[in-house]
Protein 1
Amino acid sequence: MSTNVTSTTGSALFSTIASNKVEELWASWYIYWGNDVLATGLLFFLVHEFMYFGRCLPWFIIDQIPYFNKYKIQPNKIPTNQQQWECFKAVLKSHFLVEALPIWLFHPICSQLKITYGVPFPSWKIQFAQIVFFFICEDLWHYSFHRLFHYGWFYKNIHKIHHKYAAPFGLAAEYAHPAEVMALGVGTVGFPILYAFLATKYASLPSIHLFTITLWIVLRLFQAVDSHSGYDFPWSLNKFFPLWAGAEHHDDHHHYFIGNYASSFRVWDWLLSTECGDLARVNRVKNANNKNEKKHKIGK
Ligand SMILES: [Zn+2]
Ligand SMILES: [Zn+2]
């Protein structure tokens, strides 16, 4: 069913057809506020708050239920309510002091780079391809900066805060120094901006829609919170898609303090021999021995 949406803001963007409920809601949001900069800023801020804390809530509840303890990666380290409360306050403060300002700058950037925000949205295939591209780029960005943050000065002065919890929990995902929040945040918002810039240069690239960027940010938030959840279930995504890092991968990072630097996938840690944990160490030694044996045989 299609719905006619007419803008009352004078913007031609919404004087068009919304073909589904989501598009209708999206258009109504912009029409309601009558100020596109305010509408985008508020949308990003609220989506971030609701999706982040909304995703943390089930993990907080699971922490209270002993049945789930068998799925906890570090079963003896259930976070206390006091720890979760302290973490919640610190993250909320950071959202207002560090992330609120850059969020309001997003709409002016969108206008400069011709990021569309009217309806209808692009096809789901285009949106899917763009989001996969952002996942791949962000993962490499995260790997590089996270690895850098584990070097001397950077660790001591910036990243140490995030490692306060050796057994992480959902809320701890964004518990970090402001410099880390900004540097890793560039990996999330920087690639859609770079993509939009390239799309203005190369006509063959489909343009990007603000809804796609919102969707990408939500998925990235879910990935960050879930990887800190501390739980690995038989139905977790990494059980069906082995390249996916999941909670097990990042929990080990917090447990061992070194290795497993990537965010979404296991590829970079595997390729660059930075996987952490006892099993990874055994496999590394085995691979090195195999290589030596092969060399030895060739030399004979
Ligand atoms: Zn780290
Ligand atoms: Zn972490």
Note: Residues 112 and 197 are 9 Å apart (CA to CA).
Protein 2
Amino acid sequence: MERKVCIVGAGISGLLACKYALSKGYHPIVFESRSAVGGVWTQTVETTKLQTPKPLFQFSDYPWPSSLETLFPDKNQVIDYLRSYAKHFDLLKHVRFNTKVVSIKYEGPSHEEIQSWALWSGNGDPFGNMGKWTVNTQDLLNQSTQVMEVDFVILCVGRFSDLPNIPQFPSGEGPEVFQGKVMHSMDYSALDYGSARNLVGGKRVTVVGFQKSALDIAMECSIVNGVEHPCTVICRTPHWNVPDLFPWGIPITSLYLNRFSEFLLHKPGEGPLLSLLATLLSPLRWGISKFVEFDIMYRHPLKKFDMVPDHSFLQEVSSCKLSIVPEGFYDNVEKGSIILKRSPAFSFYKEGVKLDYSIKSTKPIKSDLVIFATGYKGDQKLKDIFESSEFKDYMFGSSNETLSLYRKCIHPRIPQLGVIGFSESLANLYTSEIRCRWLFELLDGKFKLPSIEEMEKDIIEWEKFMKRYSGKYYRGSCIGALHICYNDQLCIDMGLNPKRKDGFWAELFEPYGPMDYA
Ligand SMILES: Cc1cc2nc3c(=O)[nH]c(=O)nc-3n(C[C@H](O)[C@H](O)[C@H](O)COP(=O)(O)OP(=O)(O)OC[C@H]3O[C@@H](n4cnc5c(N)ncnc54)[C@H](O)[C@@H]3O)c2cc1C
Ligand SMILES: NC(=O)c1ccc[n+]([C@@H]2O[C@H](COP(=O)([O-])OP(=O)(O)OC[C@H]3O[C@@H](n4cnc5c(N)ncnc54)[C@H](OP(=O)(O)O)[C@@H]3O)[C@@H](O)[C@H]2O)c1
């Protein structure tokens, strides 16, 4: 009897899951609340481009068209590429558009019983044979609801969409006292360019945040309004946002995405030799981080504008927080069409925004429009989909910050379910693809998982090493600096040789990318 597989989301991760499901003979059903495939790429700021160079952000069996010369395709080129992938592998007929999965419920053994299991899904078989998932959906066009029983669920709901992170304020200090308009970057991104220009045109705009959305939106505002109505950016934490991916002319992938660069880091499961090597090479690790930091400071006037981060560039990479600064951003800061304000906190008053009182000589910022480019609550979105409060809690552990997934794909105590696309890397398509491949090899019975206890130990071990390099910026789900080591584990599980390069020197120094796993 064919097992029913349900995939939630038709962004990059959902499309990949669908393609790999088909390749193993399943007939998956994909629920997508939007009316098109592509997830976040269906609604972005007009000037958004890929931040990852395209060789690192491509399907291993469907490269970018050779006619596309740019290294960083724009949002329309990305969406065209994703649509053409879906068409090529005939995925669209499996997607039910405008259909939201409202909740999922595991119907089977009680939580007490699940807690007592030694093996995933009860018997180590991904399909378990002990229960099924009930998937509750809503058709967003006619509001009708439907219930479906499936054997396996893959959550590909995305981390940076749908549920915005809105800052909270004590009563009397929030947007309610402000006479202007407040919106989140998600809603700004949903506007077409003309509407966005009209919205900000001639207005005093304040943008909150100092990561990619904030930088892009501030840049757009400064282009529209010039120095006459400068755009103010409120930065809580300065970051090592890079001018490009070539510090001092060297590709950053040669510094952070080859096997040699991972020898400089301690890794989960390392033996005494690798551990000694990482310790001996730690000055080089520090030196490379400084090398990139000096490049950024040489090219961007961070000191002049009090924007030098307190943490290292290695921490930035290890927490997947790398953002490329739009071209001309600091020229506009110098000209005065963008004003940078550093403040650990802020609040609203009638005419605008007040910065933290502890900062001397700061005047309130008069504003007509405040845009929160403050990110998303991907963790909450993932939790909300479960009906069971136990599964909600399992997902994010006791600290509520870490997504406790084995191989960043499955939760040892949530049966018959995978999560793809939540844990980040510096090239998310690449990561989602190898994870889908791993998951479907598992579903296909190609390998068995260890016991729940061993998987939990492995998760803790990975968290320990990832925290070591990302420090307080640890988000619990970024394999940024240990990408190859992580891929090695998936390859070994799948019975593939993890060493994918031709020859010793290539293996050591050539950057790894999706095509190495084709
Ligand atoms: C503007 C922007 C630019 C980015 N640029 C890069 C980059 O250059 N390089 C990089 O590596 N990463 C980048 N990222 C990260 C990006 O999130 C990933 O690259 C990738 O697109 C994520 O794909 P996904 O399928 O995992 O998630 P999403 O793209 O978020 O897709 C999730 C899909 O699930 C659907 N969905 C969610 N909940 C439900 C539900 N309950 N029922 C039905 N459907 C649901 C959503 O509608 C959505 O279509 C960027 C992110 C953003 C926001
Ligand atoms: N390819 C592209 O061009 C592109 C474009 C847009 C987005 N993206 C990607 O999309 C993802 C989301 O990016 P994002 O910029 O929207 O979100 P983000 O990376 O989560 O950044 C959120 C920003 O808001 C700040 N912030 C959050 N809460 C705040 C508060 N209460 N007060 C003040 N500041 C607050 C954060 O400061 P702290 O650092 O102090 O937390 C941070 O600067 C990222 O992966 C990004 O790379 C890519």
Note: The mean pLDDT is 93.
